Amino acid sequence: MRLKPETALLPDLFDRTRARTEALTANLEIEDMVAQSMADASPTKWHLAHTTWFFEEFILRPHAPGYRSPDDRFAYLFNSYYVQAGPRFARDSRGLLTRPTVKAVMAYREAVTAAVVRLIAKGDAPLDLVELGCHHEMQHQELLLTDLLHLLSHNPLDPAFKAPSPAAMAEAAPLAWIDCPGGLEEIGHDGQGFGFDCETPRHRTFVAPYRLASRAVTNREWIAFIEAGGYRDATLWLSDGWATAQREGWAHPIYWRHEDGAWQGFGLRGAQPLDPDAPVAHISYYEADAFARWAGKRLPTEAEWELAAAMPIDGNFLETEQFRARPATAPGLAQMWGDVWEWTQSAYSAYPGYKAPPGAIGEYNGKFMANQYVLRGGSAVTPRAQMRASYRNFFYPFQRWQMTGLRLAEDAA
At 346, phi and psi to the nearest 5? Predict the structure, then answer.
């Protein structure tokens, strides 16, 4: 993590981050905020409390003399996976925490926010940790929305997080192939602005010449994969992926439905006709890999993706409040930013020379560097401030409740 944040901008970043989280929950009912739909997803109330605990645990307790928590028991309830920070309540049982109430959690947020503001004003706050806490909370803003979507998808009333206005259908730009030269290049965080430790150190890597699809794979193209028997052809799938697909009964992306001869998708704006030219979303690595093999292509490596992403960051992020992916209509290399996270074929592992930070903060990223794959580019529910070319998101290959899609690649002829 960066050690010298922009001091003058930090109070505004902190205020905006905390306020946005609460704004995302403003129209939810209490019942929406307390239920848990699966072990991987947490209740909205828990996200509100956990992001507050993070500031309390790593900033207020060690750096604010005389600080007293509203309730010391919250440390046990709302620690996620920081072993060095103490024992934790079981992750798969967070939906059983009817107490503290949502009202009590909001009071907890208010007290901790005020204490951090006072600490910053006094000049005693560890600014690198405050900045890290803001980016941590931005990650949870996205998780809050995707976890809520998974919860709402189980309700036969099809409740919408946001007013279910029809998608503005637009024809996707024709798929083109962009030649990328490769070579001996540098990737990783360049030291400018914030970055997570897993993005470091910047290092050289060789990339052979390659070609990248000009946009993400669309729903229309995914339907062709389904109709061609893609979910029934074991030869397209990795062994673990085929076993998972058979066990879970996968026949289409997680939130798709086929009703009255047409495809529908369920999203944060409720159930709507599937936009055929929007990027396919909510697919696992296994599905993305099978599609690429069916198409006669492959997934890009994260180095290939990062080198191609040397362009201004502009896309459909959380701030647009679309809460869904949109078609790419511009020619050339498009949609690198926003809409859907793009699976890469790269395993999430340490860069050469990587060292985790000391203490419990070192558990943030480093201990997860096994059995997961890297995704790049952000989604329609990712805060824009999170994005940079070196940003590495990561998930297990079977997970598909996140807004994840794919872009194809191939070796240069």
Answer: -85, 130
| Domain 177-411, CATH number (from 3.10.180.10, 3.40.50.1980, 3.90.1580.10, 3.20.20.140) | 3.90.1580.10
- Within 10 A of 34 (CB to CB), how many other CB atoms are there? 19
Helices (H), 219-281: 219-227, 239-248
Task: Give the C-alpha separation, 305 to 134, whole Å.
Answer: 26
| CATH code that applies to domain 7-152 | 1.20.120
The span from the CA of 280 to the CA of 222, in Å, is 7
Q: What are the pLDDT digits (tens) for 205-244? A: 999 999 999 999 999 999 999 999 999 999 999 999 999 9
Query: For the chain, what are the domain ranges?
Result: 7-152, 177-411
26 three-class SS: coil
Contacts of 265 (CB under 8 A, 6+ apart): 219, 253, 255, 256, 257, 271, 272, 273, 274, 275
> End-to-end CA distance of the chain, in Å?
39
